[in-house]
Amino acid sequence: MSVLSMTRRTLFIGGAGALAAPAILTRASFAQTATETMNKTPQTNSFKIGKFAVTVISDGIRPGEKPEETFGANQKKEDVAALLTANFLPTDKFVNGFSPVVVDTGSDVILFDTGLGEAGREWGAGQLIAGMKASGYTPDQVSLVVLTHMHGDHIGGLMEGGAPAFKNARYVAGQVEYDFWKDPARVGSPAEGGHKGVLKNVVPLAEKTTFIKDGSEVVPGITAIEAFGHSPGHMVFHLESEGKALMVTADTANHYVLSLQRPDWEVKFDFDKAKAAAARKKVFDMIATDRLPFVGYHMPFPSVGFVEKHEQGYRFVPETYQFEI
């Protein structure tokens, strides 16, 4: 059964109480208050895929402005605005979420990505560990950490206070991804910040890390699939148990409308924009054709849903009660 530690009903009740208060909140201040509340209250979503117990955890959310500068960066501003308007979204702002995933196979407790960690807590994110505890897991129970790629919002939670946050864990990461970010050639390039993050958070764990490639089996029932483009060695993962399946798509698509309905549109943070677009089509064609549920790291929380082919891309269909019956 899906479990949200802060439900939509809670938000509505909180909003009604706020509006009844003597100091009426403006729309902007209400939005800011809602964001702060969501970042302080652990949000989780738990369900089963066969015998695998899956828990999606919100590491936090962050509002942004000028969506056209991030998504559809090679398009006309008015075309991006038109698509947002058609999907009932504002044209001047967007919200970015971060959603690591815990998969309990019965033999392993596997964590896919680690959120922003200590750096995120400076602005209210970095909620992974709090969310894990709210779901009944402790960091020490994690036996395997899988890194889909090595951007800061995925590896920031590997360390706490200079020590491994998941002290009993082994690690899995893509060989191509690791080799790129570890390479001293990144110094003096636009990738230098990412290089420093990997030296700080990933390299100290290298002796406990298994480096994988396309088709590698992580554990029985979990297989890595190459989806390069967003980062040099970005990977997605196919989970299967007792005839049920789920895809962990990480950052293949970073916006549920702009990146899915228009997979060819360039995204500012994609390393190789042509490869990233090809990866979106490859991964989401498979998900749509096989009617698979997927978890997207930046999809609107609870970050789980389906896609169907729609016009030149895909339409996101959020999960509702599919895993409850």
Description:
It is a single chain. This protein starts with 7 loop residues before the first helix and ends in a 7-residue tail after the last strand. A seven-stranded mixed sheet has the order 1-2-5-6-7-10-11. A seven-stranded mixed sheet has the order 12-13-14-15-16-17-18. With 325 residues, the protein is of the alpha+beta class. The model is unreliable at 1-30 (pLDDT under 50). It has helices spanning 8-20, 27-40, 77-86, 117-121, 128-134, 152-155, 175-182, 192-201, 273-290, and strands at residues 44-49, 52-57, 60-65, 93-98, 101-104, 109-112, 144-147, 159-160, 163-164, 170-174, 209-212, 217-219, 222-226, 235-241, 244-250, 294-296, 304-310, 313-318. It is globular, with a radius of gyration of 19 Å. The chain has nine helices and 18 strands. The chain has one domain (45-318): Metallo-beta-lactamase, Chain A (4-Layer Sandwich), CATH 3.60.15.10.
**On the 0-100 scale, what is the average pLDDT?**
91
Q: Number of domains in the coordinates?
A: 1
CATH architecture: 4-Layer Sandwich
Radius of gyration, rounded? 19 Å
Low-confidence stretches: 1-30
User: For the report, how would you describe the main beta sheet?
Assistant: 7 strands, mixed
Give the number of helices. 9
CATH topology: Metallo-beta-lactamase, Chain A
- Any idea what the shape is? globular
Strand order of the largest sheet: 1-2-5-6-7-10-11
Structural class: alpha+beta
Residues in helix, %: 25-40%
What is the CATH first-level class name? Answer: Alpha Beta
End-to-end separation in angstroms reads 8 Å
Bin the strand percentage: 25-35%
Total strands: the figure is: 18
Return the string of H and E elements. HHEEEHEEEHHEHEEEHHEEEEEHEEE
CATH superfamily: Ribonuclease Z/Hydroxyacylglutathione hydrolase-like
